[in-house]
Design goal:
- It contains eight helices and eight strands.
- It is α/β, with parallel strands linked by helices.
- α1 runs antiparallel to α6.
- The radius of gyration is 18 Å and the shape is globular.
- The termini are far apart.
- The relative contact order is 0.16.
């Protein structure tokens, strides 16, 4: 799929009722060209001071190799690399949405509450789901933003379907809640009804919080992610690990 073409078309048709700065700032996405074992997701890219107003892409691989510290990316680097384990070449990054905004309340207050906002968000999420299903197809997904959990289907019992994954609860772990994807929910409200059979069956989904806000002992570790990858295809072994 050519997700850049789809995003460009979407940005050209942003509803007039939405804040003009969404169109003016453009979109920003991570470059993804192939399968990766681990996917880390955030909510949306921030718009930092001095940023240029234009649509753009960036290389997650380059960020991981950059030695410079950054308050957002450093915890992610630490989660993928240690002296004994290096998962950097197995990892991808993708924000659920690609509008550029720093304020976390912007999505609910300035987009979803306005005419055309829900469809604008749903179209972005449709592109996101196709990127995850068709390009990345991860075995382990780290959802590093509490508010974004609903978009995966975690709150389907409350009526929030969105991407609509059928999630099986595995257990609480030191860094969040662990689930496993069993397929797609049987719901007409899924934003990608054209996807009838998920390629993510069996993938682990770790719901955690914004990494920067977590104390170091509550952040996912490279050892833990490597353990999940090891148990990905071994039926019945994960529970033994959690019970130790």
């Amino acid at each position: 799929m050519n997700y850049l073409e789809q995003l460009t078309r979407l940005w050209q048709s942003i509803p007039d009722q939405l804040p003009i700065r969404i169109k003016e700032r453009g979109y920003v996405v991570s470059e993804n060209h192939g399968n990766k074992d681990i996917l880390i997701t955030g909510m949306n890219p921030s718009f930092r001071e001095g940023a240029v107003c234009q649509s753009d892409t960036y290389s997650f691989e380059t960020i991981l190799l950059d030695a410079k510290g950054d308050s957002y990316w450093s915890p992610i680097k630490n989660m993928l690399f240690s002296d004994s384990i290096d998962l950097r070449n197995k990892a991808a990054y993708w924000d659920l949405f690609c509008f550029r905004e720093t304020e976390q309340s912007f999505l609910n207050k300035e987009i979803l509450s306005r005419d055309g906002g829900i469809s604008f968000i749903a179209e972005q999420l449709n592109i996101t789901q196709h990127v995850i299903e068709e390009i990345i197809t991860p075995k382990v997904i780290v959802v590093a933003n509490k508010e974004s959990a609903a978009y995966w289907g975690k709150l389907s019992d409350l009526g929030y379907i969105w991407m609509g994954y059928d999630l099986k609860y595995i257990g609480n772990v030191f860094c969040g809640e662990l689930y496993r994807i069993e397929g797609l929910l049987d719901s007409k409200e899924r934003i990608s009804p054209e996807i009838t059979d998920s390629k993510l069956k069996g993938a682990f989904v770790l719901f955690t919080s914004y990494l920067k806000s977590l104390s170091k002992e509550k952040r996912p570790t490279v050892d833990f992610l490597n353990t999940l990858l090891s148990y990905y295809c071994i039926e019945g072994k994960l529970q033994e690990y959690l019970n130790k």
